[in-house]
Amino acid sequence: MKYNPASVIMQTGEEVYYNRHRYTNPSSSLTGIQSYQPLFQNGVYSQDLGNYLTPRGRVIPVTPTTIGARYGFTAFDDFAILPDSVRYFDTRSPFTSLDYVQGSKGQQRIYVTHSRNITSRWNMTALIRRMGSRKLLGAVNTTDRQAGNWSFGLSSRYYSKNARYQLLGQVISMSHLHYDQGGIVPGIADSTNNDLYDYNLSTVGLKGVTTTEKRVTGRIYQQYSIRKDSSIQVFNQLDIVSRSNNFGDPSPRRNAAFYPAIYNDSNSTVDKVTYLQSDFKLGVKGMNSFLFYSLYYKARYYKYDLPNSTVLAKEGLNTIAGGELIGKIYKSWYAGVSTEWSASTSEYVIEGSLIHKLLEVRYRQMQYTPTFQEQLYDGNHIRWNNQFNFIDLQQLTAVLKLRYKSISISPSAKWMQYKNYVYMDQFAHPAQFNNDLDVWSSNLHVAVNKRLWIFENTFQYNFTSDENILRVPETINQTRLLLQGYLFKKATFMQIGVDVFFRSAWVGNRYMPVTQQYYLGNAASPFNQLESYALFDVFLNMQVKTARFFVKMAYINQGLGSNGYMVTPYYSGMTRTFEFGVNWQFFD
After folding, report:
1. How far apart are CA 90 and CA 9, in angstroms?
2. Above 70 in pLDDT, residue 33?
3. Which CA distances in Å does 401 have to 360, 396, 410?
């Protein structure tokens, strides 16, 4: 028997929870394989430090997915395997996926996934990820490391013969190491960002400084159908998270000009933060042809600790009750409502939705506490202990999905209004804005998919009501145009094209390595005023059976008008690079 992607099916935990009999197969699509480190994805723009694996920060605020205790360190989330993103396999034959990417400036990515069924109803999947990058700024030699990442994961799925009982499990670990440089130090003669594109010859603000993050997450989910028709099901889920973030400098006096202060030890900095969280969720749910419902109780234990500080740890228990209803109201129209409320903290969230194949509208209102990091930090160079109020949020999103033959058009808009918004001020400290803050973000996505060519364009417009609190680039645009077709009697499928990314000028957020946070830059400084830029990447993608390849020349327009661009104040973006990659899938 010949196996192929159709012999391997996958589901997310969310799809199992909602009893969606929707399965996906390992991707065999060639389109987009060359985009392995985008800063603009699914309408979300992030900034980093101009190199692969450097800390990232969302420019538009990200709404919390739940109420209750939250850690706060998110700079390396994009390089971690998040529990909700794990896919659970069911395979007819052993499945292996090998993914390798190499860039001429030292970017490297290796992903290996292996999955096989132990029995017809029990699967085990293992994965390993290794990523690395080399320094672009102030490197002493070509092998100087910028960052490194190791991730390991195990996941499993089991279901009974009649599928009334299902078990999902996963364990994931990540270790991320980043060599902090503090950005470019302008010379006496430097007056604008155009004077800072010296790359390896640049002088940087920090030497010998590292940031590390380690995390281990585990999840066990179970559900059992009391009735055969799934109208009454009981479920429980246990999540455990253990994380630690460290900032180390073996010689603070050498880097004293960079730090706001040196409080405790001028000979060595070892700032450490640890976090432990355990969630247990128990409930009942069910569905029929027109309704899905759920009711649950959740208990969350947390402990936020600074072991190298005399400040006492924050430890406690959140109790949360929640529920959800999703129903068919008319033909292909669906409406839903969900809520969570915490008796221990008085936090709450209410969300309503109206869904159609052409339209999706969602409204969310919530009251939640700031993260632990925003409330308390005590290090050798920065410290605070804040008593912030609840943050109140109203959010409205709308997406229109139009399609005519090979043309699809999807305008969308998001409005958020914050009360007591918490942000990082110009001193890299958390502050609370007690007035209303409005944030608008609208997107227009257009795609034309023909047999011989594909065109895609996403345009985004952003606006905030107070740029002294939150700054965003006004416009972002991403375009892809490619030609495609078969070669060698259809033995090879090939695409050749160009990706173009544009970001308008703005006063960019600066980065503080000590706390791994982006913060407001001083608008008066010319080095915080980031000019608009456009990146042109040309690529060639090929597919031969189950192997996919790409070669790409990124930032091919370097030197045409400018020798560089700034993604973050004092951090220049990636120079012109040659990149190649291969993804090979095996089904036996």
Report:
1. 5
2. yes
3. 8, 17, 5
C-beta pairs of 330-339 under 8 Å, 24+ apart in sequence: 332/356, 332/357
For the question of whether the overall pTM of this predicted structure is more than 0.90, the answer is yes
Identify the band that residue 201 occupies on the pLDDT scale cut at 50, 70 and 90: confident
- Rg of the chain, C-alpha, whole Å: 25
Q: What pLDDT is attached to residue 195?
A: 75
Determine the structural domain holding residue 524 and report its residue range: 5-586
Torsion over CA: 183, 187, 191, 193 (sign):
negative
d(CA 90, CA 159): 10
Q: State pLDDT tens for residues 71-129.
A: 999 999 999 999 999 999 999 989 999 999 999 999 999 999 999 999 999 999 999 99
The model's pLDDT over 314-330, given as tens digits with 9 standing for 90+, comes to 999 999 999 999 999 98
Sign of CA dihedral 222, 224, 229, 232: negative
Q: Looking at this protein, which amino acid is placed at residue 115?
A: S
Q: How many CB atoms lie within 10 A of CB 309?
A: 18
Indicate whether 408 pLDDT > 90.
Answer: yes
Is the pLDDT reported for residue 188 higher than 70?
Answer: no
> Could you tell me which residues are beta bridge partners of residue 483?
453, 496
| Diameter over CA atoms, the chain | 77
CA–CA distance, 205 with 569 (Å, rounded to integer): 13
Backbone angle region of 43, left / alpha / beta, with phi > 0 → left and psi within -120 to 50 → alpha? left
Comparing CA positions, the residue from 339, 337, 302, 297 lying closest to residue 320 is: 297
CATH of the domain at 373: 2.40.170.20
Q: How many CB atoms lie within 10 A of CB 444?
A: 16
pLDDT at residue number 3 = 78
**pLDDT, the chain, mean:** 94
Q: Where are the beta strands (DSSP E) in 181-290?
A: 209-225, 233-249, 269-287
Give the tokens for residue 441. Answer: 């973000």
CB half-sphere exposure, 170, CA atoms < 13 A = 26
Q: How many domains does the chain have?
A: 1
Q: Region 562-575: what's the mean pLDDT? A: 92
pLDDT in tens, 452-462: 999 999 999 99
User: 41, 69, 75: which is closest to 56 by C-alpha?
Assistant: 75
How far lies 196's CA from each of 186, 203, 485, 504, 507, in Å? 7, 10, 43, 19, 17
Cβ atoms 294, 285 nearer than 8 A: yes
CA dist 139 and 135 (Å) reads 6
CA distance 30 to 229: 39
Strand partners, 298: 281, 320
Burial of 538 (0-12, 13-18, 19+ CB in 10 A): middle
* Residue 480: CA count within 13 A, CB half-sphere: 21
Cα–Cα distance for residue pair 17/14, rounded to 1 Å: 5
Take residue 81 and report the two structure tokens written for it: 């395997």
